[in-house]
Records
---
Amino acid sequence: MKYVDEFRDPEKAKALIAEINALKTQIPQLASRPLQLMEFCGGHTHTIFRYGIEPMLPDWIELIHGPGCPVCVLPMGRVDDCVALAERPDVIFTTFGDAMRVPGSKKSLLQAKADGADIRMVYSPLDALALAHKNPDRQIIFFALGFETTMPSTALTVLQAAAQGVQNFSLFCNHITTVPTIKAILDSPDMQIDGFLAPGHVSMVVGEQPFHFITEHYAKPLVIAGFEPLDILQSIWMLVKQIASRRCLVENQYARIVPPAGNMPALNAIEKVFTIREFFEWRGLGSIDHSGVKMRENYADYDAEIKFNLPNLKIADPKSCQCGEVLKGVIRPWECKVFGTQCQPETPMGALMVSTEGACAAYYNFGDLDELLQKRETLSV
Amino acid sequence: MNDSAKLKLRQRSGKCHAETITMAHGSGGKAMRDLIDDVFVSAFDNHELNKLEDQACFDLSTLNALGHRLALTTDSYVVDPLFFPGGDIGKLAITGTVNDLAVGGAQPLYLTCGMIIEEGLPVDTLRTIAASMRQTADLAGVKIVTGDTKVVPRGAADKLFINTAGIGVIPTGINIAANRAQVGDVIVINGYIGDHGAAIVDARGDMALQNSIETDCQPLNSLIAAMLKVCPDIHCMRDATRGGIATVLNEFAHSSQVGIRLKETALPIRDEVRGMCEILGLDPLYLANEGKVVAIIPAQAAEQVLNVMRAHPDGRHSAIIAEVTEKPVARVIMATLFGGERVVDMLVGEQLPRIC
């Protein structure tokens, strides 16, 4: 398939692996510990597992799978709010499919649907707006979530709804931001990450500039990476090359999609509709300052948090979950005490087991479970 | 049927003049009798059914002559929408049950047909589906010999659900079972994977995608008979329906306590299906098929079986996709086209609802 197969060429992969291997002798740190590189984005994690990239890499490179799966990091209290909204008889609650299974403190949206709530899967916020036109006597709520990648489409939908004067459409806004979260990880004392693969599609919107603090203040090299397997390998190679040559820059591997200055119309739409929250709660990471957005006051009519009465309760993560440590690279997913036993994709306890983009779910689905559990046994002895 | 028998049937037959199904059509009275006569019996039309007894009866000696074991299976069909590119629920209800018999090595013979109809369904829709069932039954060489009709109130079912059960006879010397895979065996499939699942997604129209993918829904008994002729010792065989080939391969690996090594580059997948999976984030390994057989055969028979399959109209794109290994036990490993390796596990949750 054109424009796809070119980015999955096994011969080019071999050549890149050889190039990466050749850099080993130039990295003194390897005498004491392997390089830890974090791919922030869940889309990257998915590609890494889907194509079996991890076992192709030399053992001195460890990939740390970051918190960039917006479905995974949704806290239980917010899911409870969704269920409460969806269970109102006047409401049609619309959501992306992968948010359906995220557990709340009592039930997931999937369970709420089975119990009779009118919950519909959509592929775009515009589908939700179309439902509002079709069902003038019902309130249509769109469950808006995602990083800067999905923010523009929700913002544009709100702008369109406002221009059309639609009264029965609103957002339950759970959009989150990338940069404060990376900063929170960098500030954590047990962090050992040596470099970052930055999210390609977030960068397509925000551009390169917001990542400069990582190289300048934290002295960690960063490469903006695409989502095909060769994109990932090439980005790893670029990152290792920076480390080997003691450089520390923001580099853009995904230049075919990411303009250095980002996408101005998209950024304008975001700016018009959303404003930064003081803090936002993340599953596994706790509260992070400025890590979420809410709707501006002049769009209050379209803000489900204002329009409807929400329980808005904070629910603590289950104590046995070690999602936070996995997210920071302190432990590997399979080292968590409940991985693969109490916490499985069918009955996820922790955030990272919820979506196929979550690090734990990826290990569970694409790894050898028995072997991983055995490895954990050996560690605890 | 000869002319005098046809005449008798016509004299006895009622006519259904209603345009839509009402609760009266399930009441056991004249409306139901007219519906059964006019829509089902006239379409299925065979000696055993036309007697209209509460059961169909067969001669044991005829069955005995075909083999030494009977195979019995049942399946219910709830696909939404009822009509989709390349097929409909009626065609599916015949092929699904025929294929479940055929993959056990049985020659499928007789089917039952249970209809659960939601009130309000247009009678013409039922006629079209019954005609499609007959056509598919003829293609597979089976007869629908007994049936049942129920009507439920609006909302108690969605348009139409069909259950079919079937019996067939397994010839002497055939012993196909999921626990018979042996190290060194090879695994064949009769063509492109994922067409049915992709066609259903397309037909539902909620993805606003346009393509030309048709279901692969087809009876497999003729192809399987040809395969068994050149290799009676097929070890394992299943049709890869819901859960796709990933599920079938995992079932084989578990039952036989062997490893299976799948080659991504060997998988036959249409570009249209690949493209749709790329856009929607689906994995073709888990997409449903309704006309694909996955068989584990001794390596020495591989070439001959593959040749026979490719020469058959239902197996032109057949390929060897995997081999049976000693380790890892009960695991399916895929060598990815990128040069990496990953585990292919059973599907967790659902990829797509109500595809068959």
Note: Chain B is about 35% helix and 20% strand.
---
Amino acid sequence: MSVADDAAMGQAPGGDRVALLEFRNVNTHYGAVHILKDVNLAIYPGELVCLLGGNASGKTTTLKALLGMVTPTSGDVVLHGEVVNNKPISYRVENGVTMVPENRRLFKRLSVKENLVLGAYLRSDKDGIEADLQHVFELFPRVEERLSQKAGTLSGGEQQMVAIGRALMSRPTVLLMDEPSMGLAPALVQQNFDLIQQINEEGMAVFMVEQNANMALSIADRGWVLQTGMVVLDDSAKSLLANPEMRAAYLGET
Amino acid sequence: MSATMTSSTASSSGSVNRASVADQDWRKIGKWGGLCTLALVLVSLIGMPVGLDRRILIHPVLSLGYLSLLWIPLMLGFVVSKRVELEGVESPEPGGRDLVAGALTGLVGGVGMAVFMLALNTFNIRDPLVNWSPQLLELLNYGRGLGFGVAAWIVACCVLGLLGSAIHVVSADVRRVVSFSAFGLLAFAVLEGAISDLSEGFGLEFLTDSIYAKRGGVTIVWSIVLAVVIGGVSVLTKGRLKAAKANYSELEGPERKRASRILFVVVALLIVILPLFLGTIMNELLANVGLFLLLALGLNIVVGLAGILDLGYVAFFAVGGYTTAVLTSPDSPFFAPELHFGITLVIVVVFAGIVGLVIGAPVIRMRGDYLAIVTLGFGEIIRLLFMSDWLKPYFGGAQGITNVPGVDLGFITIKGTDPRSVFYLVLVFCALAIYISWRLQASRLGRAWMAIREDEKVAEAMGINTVNTKLLAFVVGAVLASFSGAILVAKVGSVFPNSFMILVSIIILVVVIVGGMGNIAGVLVGSFVLIGILGGPRQPGLLHEFQSFKLLIYGALLVFMMLQRPEGLVPSARRSQELHQEEFLQDVWFKGEEHEAEEHEAEEHEAASHEGSDA
């Protein structure tokens, strides 16, 4: 959406890029269980990045900590250069971080329109909201047709569109996606990744957490691999795809 | 009966042609016939026939007591021959087979009843079963000896079962006329009190005096006349209502607006004018309906919109009542400023808000069942506090606070002795509550509540402060309940802790559920049907004879609604869709199964929905 702004914001005066959203040595605990261990991540404007990892590797916790549902026990979450460890979710949403939850999780009994408008809950600029609705309709003409339908009655693919549309309604600069391919038919997974790519090409930074490593790396710029709460690999998508260790662990090759 | 159960034959659902009369689904008949027996015996043993015998519906042949039994075989005859319409499976035309099924079901019930009567005659187990009495037997015999009674019940149940199933066999037009006549006549008989009262107001006593017999009940001649007239009206109005409704929904833009406005004005005028023609009892009843409507509207915001299952809702009702009593009554034991009701109301709002926050803050972080149980506890705590010796110097303990003055408006004092004035006061508050609920539903806050109800975690991820938003719902509900409490106390003139039993919370919840959760029209209908007809926890309804069976009926109704119509009497489109969505999705899934064979990974409902998008 506001591509130009993002670029300006993200472009530090020496040409060095400033991260939109960053983890600096983040540790998190659930009770006594140490989940994330000294994790460092950085998402730059306009990037498409992915976080890979097996079950219980801390992927979802990473997302939650980025959005503010989990507070790190040490280390900093940095948004636009500001430490936001103790800021509520609403602060991060207002400042451009939005999540598309796993399995889409629409508000099933509410209409598609209500779902979309709820995405803009923290905004009060009616005209802006209306303009963004139109933008979502341009991206997903199908959604406009289903506007007054209850979201729970949509097909899986349509629900995914509404879920992304709902996230876009908050005018994010970085979109956090939790397992976008989860529970979708193979044909729809492809369609979904095309969508993500399309949104990314419009200038939005996308951070996705995925199990489908092959698929994710095929569209991502960079990726991290998380293992038992530690970042074990941090590389460009191309090198990760070529990495034999990676291929063995996540791409089912020996 | 066990013989019929075991001898069940293969079902004949596959045959397309009219099935032969003898080819019955014996298991089904055994099941419903057995249920018929059980229901008849149960109703007899809880004392309904004897207790309600004095209320005569059709003089001199039918009393409410007999009706409490006779509707059972009729209903079950109807149910047993009802078909499940399956798409794609051609079901046989309703015919003789269904009639026989209905009659047999009634017969099983009748035989069961006969056995019960024989047992009633032979054994005496009145010790645990208080209603196991000679009176009951006498009533079931029609006072003509056991032999007659047994034969009469077998025949009567059989015929009623047959009639019940016949409803499916006759054409839709006949069905319409008959059911209109029957329900219309029933309404005339049951609503005798209301109708007499109304006719008195309009100066039409001569009419009702001739319709109703002296000891109550429609006379036989008038029953026939009424049935014919109502049937005739149903023929004349056939399709008109639907057409009018369709016309209305076709209107667009300003025309629609104008039609809505006219409709609104007519309804509003009717509500305002009607009480002027009603007597004390009917106005009292309407005032009670209004008080509970106010409570139900508040609870509807908490449960229906925000999805917080608050079982201690009565606490706020109590707070409103006690605050009013303390501030207005000269007999308040500790602190008696004797304020005016208007000023009190402002303080009531503040207090209810504070109590809402105090109770809400700790419980609001809980979910579902846990929250329900904790609020249940808080509801009782508040009542017990008002009752306690510890707070007796302030609130009068079990003796409560009496001598609460009415609402002095200058030109009139609204008091319980003039229920019409109370009704108007309640009406103002109900109108306000309806307006607030209606505006909230479409507002940003209303959307946030619904989002939380749907998926709290995701709502949080949207940036909604779920704790504060839920607390706000709690407080708004509390304020509406406190209004109701304040008016109740001004109406009754006193306040006692036992007016705020847990039962009140439950009944309001039932009103909301039966009417239709999250839906203002539903709450309106629910209050009128349940509080108006059956009565509130202490307030008699139109059928005050049912007083002692009220809770049983509430419970039975709740079970029935949950099974058959979980969306409530007046479903909001939203809720109905959700509750039937599973069926819908299963349909899609079945149809799309072969194309989706590869999709074993996806969850069932996921698989179901894709098919729709690919098509």
Note: The two ends of chain B are 51 Å apart (CA to CA).
---
Amino acid sequence: MSAAGSLSVDQIKLGRRHLVTPEGVDLQIELADVGSRIGAFAIDLIIMIVVLIAAGFGLSSMSIYNGELAFTIFVLIAFLLRSFYFTLFEMGRRAATPGKMLMKIRVAARGKARLSAASVFARNALREIGFFLPIGFLFGIGQGGVDGWISLLVSIWAGIFLMFPLFNRDRLRVGDLVAGTWVVKSPRPILAADLITTDAPEVEAAFAKFAFTPAQIDMYGIKELHVLEDVLRARDREVMTDVATRIRTKIGWTWEEGESDATFLRAYYAALRGRLESKMLMGVRRKDKFDRR
Amino acid sequence: MKRRTLTLKSKRFREERQEVWKEMETMLQRIEARSVRGLTDEELIKLPRLYRSTLSSLSVARATSLDQSVVTYLESLCTRAYYVIYGSQQRLRDRIYNFFARDWPLAVQTAWKDVAASSFIFALGILIGFVLVSNNPDWFYSFMSAEMASGRTPAASEEYLRSTIYGYESEDGGLGAFAAFLFSNNSRVSIFAFALGFAFALPTVALLLYNGLSIGAFIAVFASKGLGFEIGGWLSIHGTTELFAIALAGAGGMLIGRAVAFPGDMTRVESMRSKAEQAAIILGGVVVMMFVAGLLEGFGRQLIDNDWVRYGIGGSMLTFWLLYFFLPRKSLESAKA
């Protein structure tokens, strides 16, 4: 959302990354935050467990007739789920498991390369030693429990893998690091209505009452305009009153009987945006109110 | 002042281009839900044009519009479109075909040094295990847990050992269940051998040696009772496939480990990344081999009692794998040319 160009240090910290398409446009993608990745993984785990339980129930009724076959199928289902659930979904068109789809994130190749099936496979093979192996150890599968020291070591091992995304800039899991992938946001595009609606004549008439002087409009910059846009879209009455009062004081606007806060704010937004945009056409981007240009 | 508000350029820009964006959006939704093949020819021609015009809208919007919602919308629309247009459009069927016909054997072939090294280490492990247990049977218990050995220890009688390698083994459950269990277990071991490679391949080497030791110890127990030839047949029917697959998984791990340890001009992460794909392809194939080995083990071994037939199957499987991987092939570059 910055000027088309390079990202600021703050934006990089917040997870914005350059992605220049072959057409030469910088898309400035956004990395998925760790919270949504944990959420996605939790959802996927729950799905896997539910499928496994359902399979267990289905097969237990079958085992009355053929216990061995039922057991075989169960072992195979468990293996396929554990090893290929993530891989197959991430190889798909959306490059996301159901959990990731719900959290609106996806896997992508770092840099400009295509996401290959092999890298998806590699990043999920690392999940095996980072998650499933330690979990298996801690619950002592097969060996009937393990002693304290080993569980401590295994916990540290698993901890390193689990915490890994928190300690690098690109929020990479060990698997991402090896496979050359990362996880990015992939929100559904939603186009909200333009706040400057002048289609209805009565709105036009209402707007016409507000004639701000250039000095009054020049009090704010782009940052404030965007805050104002958020306020107008959120439509919280109390916040709007508060903001309107503050703007009136700042620009020295006298409130008249019957003037609604919402209309005032909309009119001021339209005036400010018009002013800042025409400045932008002249090559001046006024960052915020302290930027005196 | 009123006039100016009404003729805001960014607003007019949005009104004029909106239709294109909406069209791009619906087309994206359709592609994501089904695939590019669901589009008609006309739409296919339209797709890149829509994409480019949406991209240019994004550039214009960033330069002229201060409406956050428009810029954010266009950013996410363009990013989605980018991933669709520059993503992989290969059909699953073609992918699978390419994997077996080209990618997998080629990945193994070009990693022949690692395959050789990993096979050598594995064989070394087997040899050491065999020699140690032959000289002092007590070593057996340090390589094998009682559970894994299930009675097949140096203390067992010849009759008992013989009974375990021929005929139906009821204590292991049925044939299919046993095969499925082994398949998933072995695949997991291979995945570990691969995944642990990034630690300079040291855990991979340790895993290979340890697996080798237990197999060597196992053979030694049978050999000491004069069943050396028989256990060879019992192992080789599926073992040529299974052990080869483990060696390949080890090779995948070593490929990555080597890239991390000796990155050359690249950074370690870049170097690892450059080999990870090849290693992953090898590993994907290993899972297939494990499945074949599981079938051979679960069904072939228990249904075929003749030693010579067992050796014959094992030998021809090994020949098959070697020819498949190491017959000269066109490389990727020359295949494209």
Note: Chain B has two domains: 9-85, 93-336.
---
Amino acid sequence: MKIKITTKELTSDFAKEVKERSGIDVKKCYQCGKCTAGCPVAYEMDYMPNQIIRFVQIGARKQALTSRTIWLCASCITCTTRCPKEVKIAELMDVLREMALEEGVANPMEKDITTFHEAFLNSVKKHGRISECGMIMEYKRKRPKAALKSALQDLSDGSHLMLKGKLSLAPHSIKGKDSIKRIFEKLG
Amino acid sequence: MSEETKKTKIGYYPGCAITKCSTSEEYGTSVLGVSRVIGPELVEIDDWNCCGASSGHATNHKLSTALSVRNISLAEKDGYDEVLAPCPMCSQRLIVSQDDVEKDEKLREEVEDAIEMPISNNVKVSNYLEIVKNYSMDEIAEKQKKKPEGLKVASYYGCLLVRPPKILKFDDPEDPKTMDEIVTAIGAEAVDWEFKTSCCGGGFTLSRTDVVVKLTNDILEGAADAGANAIAVACPMCHANLDMKQNNIEKETGRRFNIPIVYISELIGLALGLNPKDLGMDKHFIDTGSVINAFSNIEK
């Protein structure tokens, strides 16, 4: 795929900004493509993992932060493990996701994924632990289209889990849930 | 805590997915059941919280680090030198967060301020395979009551037990052997296969089911091609995806694998002669009867 980026769009200090936030030095990457070769989700991505690194190298901020790729990364860390230059690619995806959320530019095509993360952390914030039922309900409520698509399968899987006593409606709350709330207030 | 108790007791951090009434409770049930027979004694860390899992580190590094480190701090307060986190998502998050605060003094200060506790980082966090290998191999040999016949197991490690290798320092990240050694020790055959550390899609179960269905299909096919009649796992996410998604795969491709996905702790439990029900083996999506029935009493 040919990608057109004008020099006007480039931000010269993007790589520096990423390095300051995370310690990850993308300049080390010589574009061998090993990360992309081993990525299990590359087939679904709009840009290959090595292209995302290239975006950061040249300062194509918008292309990196609005990509679907950063959300589709499953954090399996195969890329980081195999990188001959020891670039922490999976960890780079974390920083880019964080920046995309802060700037409100996360790709809307992967809203199911960002909403899931939101629902997951809301549950932790509320109870200190995951309330699987509550988290799933929040996710499904906020993503009705996705919920409808998987409704039949969910019903069958959900009833199996319920029957086996593996899905509890009551949340597991911890004693120190106020201390968890304070962690979220300070760092959330 | 006396020196004596310190040596024998290990702090237990179950994590959300494997506690009672959760989707992977049989993992917790079997880990605890096995430890009651062969040790080491596991004592739950008081008031532990969720490590933040993938949603934490994918969206907020500091928050994710603080959530994980709070548990380390609680374990230190309880006097443990070692903590078992059977869920690899948890063990990986705890270990990586320890490493992050160790290397970044400013982050450590922010995290200590947020969790309102100090952290000295003297606790070793272990995954379940490490605990079995380091404490229980002799005990298994000593107390084994049943042996499997014709059980061919594909040991599936997934991602988070072995990656990132520089920080986790556990086994070979491309061809780990620890689980295979346990499988062989109880008398099953560990098949050689290509998908030991391939990703199952992890936390995309709900948000990108299509990705999980594709990746689990590849893994199940790999196991079937290698002649495995069961897949052993040590991760609740790997288990949920491989066990539950076989129904989705059948709907989409018409192929029914029907491969039982068993926790390594369940296999050890069966070898020790524990009741399959007490190990939670009736709670799977894919029937585990063929695995249970492969075990019979060892004639002495």
Note: Chain B touches chain A through 59 residues (CB under 8 Å).
